[in-house]
């Protein structure tokens, strides 16, 4: 469960920071927020593949 929660938080934070970077016209800020967004997606995928797989197959 923490992977899903942290993933959602990182995705939302990444999107919020990306908007701020666009307003300030800061390319570095946009790249950092894209990293947060991608990290959140990876955490959500880890939750989906591993946690759900373990509960389905009785691990």
Characterize this entry briefly:
Keywords: Membrane, Transmembrane, Transmembrane helix. This protein is an all-alpha fold and 59 residues long.
Structure description:
By secondary structure, the protein is mostly helical. It has one domain (2-56). It is 90% helix and 0% strand. The chain is rod-shaped, with a radius of gyration of 14 Å.
Oligomer: single chain
Element order: H for helix, E for strand:
HH
Q: What number of domains?
A: 1
The percent range for helix content is over 70%
Quickly give the structural class: mainly alpha
- Number of DSSP strands? 0
Poorly predicted tracts of residues = none
Q: Tell me what portion of residues adopts beta-strand conformation.
A: under 5%
